């Protein structure tokens, strides 16, 4: 492997998954949530643990299956869960905070997925309404 | 440590940093770039290697230094580079692709920062112009 790597520490997990999901942050990391309720949206970085194997991590090109008409595409040009690092990224709406537990809407992680990080969504820097994307990506699921 | 962890593989590095930055993807991962030029914006996930030590990784609350009036804030409620996992996330504008090299605008990584992942920015799912954020976060840098 070129270039080395790093160690990710899981800070929580997806306790239940659905239209609304519950994220549990482990007690030792819970102080990191101070003030999170001031944001309406968060980035959730999670570990796609079902894809953490050599076969999926060596996948570099896929035909995005849920996007009709999509061509063969590099994993850095789509949101394939098979990729060198099984890190998923979703913008979620924060519905509520109860101690170390967050209720969120829009998370596409599975139940049991480890949480890698939460970052507040800042519309000034993170919202690009006019961003261009290829025609195939405009159908099917948003990510 | 509760909950275990995972192994991140570096797929490239920031070759030069500035108003526009150059990202080099290592040759073995370069096929993952197929089709990336169809997107105007990308998420860059990078490893904040200067913060990859116990002191910074055990930091759970900070007073965001570049945001006047910011209160003590959990690292999951701000974009502090000191956090349990030193993963930075920035939306960049893709200016050009040349082989395994990307020219981007808006990256706040340092020269030499390892690249963890690139994901295409999809305005349908990733742009939330009306997201709410606390007053302190609306001054200073966007992230």
Which secondary structure elements does this structure contain, and how are they paired or packed?
The structure is a homodimer of 143-residue chains.
Chain A: E1 5-9, E2 12-16, E3 20-25, E4 41-47, H1 54-57, E5 61-62, E6 73-74, E7 87-98, E8 101-105, E9 114-120, H2 123-126
Antiparallel strand pairs in A: 2-3, 2-9, 3-8, 4-7, 4-9, 5-6, 7-8
User: In DSSP terms, counting alpha (H) and pi (I) runs of 4 or more, how many helices of chain A?
Assistant: 2
Low-confidence stretches of chain A: none
* N-to-C span of chain A: 29 Å
Beta-strand content of chain A: 35-45%
Short characterization:
The first copy, chain A, is mostly beta strands. Chain A has helices at 54-57, 123-126; strands spanning 5-9, 12-16, 20-25, 41-47, 61-62, 73-74, 87-98, 101-105, 114-120. The model of chain A has no long low-confidence stretch (mean pLDDT 95).
Describe the structure.
The structure is a homodimer of 143-residue chains. Chain A is built from two helices and nine strands; from the N terminus they run ββββαβββββα. In chain A, the strands form two sheets. In chain A, strands 2-3-8-7-4-9 form a six-stranded antiparallel beta barrel. A two-stranded antiparallel sheet of chain A has the order 5-6. The mean pLDDT of chain A is 95. Helices cover 6% and strands 36% of the residues of chain A. In chain A, 45% of the residues are buried. Chain A is mainly beta. The longest helix of chain A has 4 residues, at 54-57. Chains A and B meet through strand 1, strand 4, strand 6, strand 7 and strand 9 of A and strand 1, strand 4, strand 6, strand 7 and strand 9 of B.
């Amino acid at each position: 492997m070129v270039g080395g790597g790093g160690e990710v520490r899981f800070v929580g997990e997806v306790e239940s998954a659905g239209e609304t999901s519950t994220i549990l942050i482990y007690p030792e990391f819970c102080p990191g949530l101070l003030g999170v309720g001031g944001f309406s949206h968060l980035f959730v970085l999670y570990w796609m643990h079902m894809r953490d194997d050599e076969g999926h991590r060596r996948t570099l090109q896929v035909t995005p299956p849920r996007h009709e008409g999509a061509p063969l595409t590099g994993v850095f040009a789509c949101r394939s869960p098979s990729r060198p690092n099984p890190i998923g990224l979703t913008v979620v709406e924060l519905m509520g905070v109860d101690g170390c537990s967050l209720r969120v809407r829009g998370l596409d992680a599975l139940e049991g997925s480890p949480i890698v990080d939460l970052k507040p969504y800042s519309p000034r820097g993170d919202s690009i309404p006019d961003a261009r994307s290829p025609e195939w990506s405009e159908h099917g699921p948003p990510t």
